[in-house]
Prior knowledge:
Layout (H helix, E strand, L loop, with lengths): L7 H14 L3 H13 L11 H4 L4 H11 L12
Helix pairs in contact: 1-2
Amino acid sequence: MTIRNVPSEVAHALDAERLRRGLSLNRTVLALVAEALGISGKPRSNGLRGLSGDWTEEEYRQFEAATASFNEIDDELWK
Length: 79
């Protein structure tokens, strides 16, 4: 497979990614294509996970316990 007319910014980005991954250019391109198509075995991501953080199961249980009262309705307030 040959890809023609690759813009220089794409070529530079691919080279930087190749260096970051420590792979050949060919392996890097194949990995990126597989990831983009959702067939790499890795879960697809919108890239926001690093910004939003991640909870352990224990942290989730603690949060649910701490906010459980938010689901309770005070009937006196709704008369």
